Amino acid sequence: MADESGKSDGKKRLLIVDDDVRFCALLHDYLDPMGYEVESVHNGADGLRQAVEGNYAAVILDVMMPGMNGLDVLRELRRRRPALPVLMMTALGDEPDRIAGLEVGADDYLPKTFSSRELLARLRAVLRRAAAPAPSEKDAPEAALTVGELWIEPSSRTVTLAGRPVLLTAIEYDILLSLARALGRVKSREQILLEVAERDFDGLDRSIDVHVSSLRRKLGDDPKIPRYIETVRSVGYRLKKPEPSPGASFT
Prior knowledge:
Layout: E1 7-8, E2 11-17, H1 21-31, E3 36-41, H2 44-53, E4 58-62, H3 70-80, E5 86-90, H4 95-104, E6 108-111, H5 116-130, E7 145-147, E8 150-153, E9 158-161, E10 164-165, H6 170-181, E11 187-188, H7 189-197, H8 207-219, E12 229-232, E13 236-239
Parallel strand pairs: 2-3, 2-4, 4-5, 5-6
Antiparallel strand pairs: 1-2, 7-8, 8-9, 9-10, 11-13, 12-13
Helix pairs in contact: 2-3, 3-4, 4-8, 6-7, 6-8
């Protein structure tokens, strides 16, 4: 039996949704000895149902499937299980699919030409990001961060804006927290990607830009006149310090 963290008999449970039966079997044979209990579903509708109802640590989801494709599955899954980590697989060179998947809410993506090491590294990084922090009693919890009406609570990984909860994916939350900890300072795409995704930056990798765009939408931020996340051209991003109210003074 699996617990709420998606563990079963010490193994983390993974769901693979892909219509390629042989490919799923290969992933199972590789991941099982690595400490994962792998289950496979070969169509989108059944994959969605199983992902919503089952206790899985993460879902590995293919984009191209007949009937209900991976993007449709992900869109509905984000509505019903917003915190469930999803690693999306795309065919080589299908950048529009990768960007679309990130925009819908995939935590990360892999081209189907990936190496086994890369799969394991990406999967472990996604699972680490999704794991709720469990500070020991000896460690003082990190204080909440406030930026204007934005409130970021590291101990519970929650965000509110003007008192209302903002539902973020794990990587969106980590990007926001990273920028908030460096409030007013620019962080490059390379720094952000290494910190939140634990991998090196590729000049063609647009994943951070897509996640930031999604984060801005959820914060109601206008990239042309940003209240919160400012783009620093050719460098990266900065979380702006709140502007003082008219008449305010600082000592």
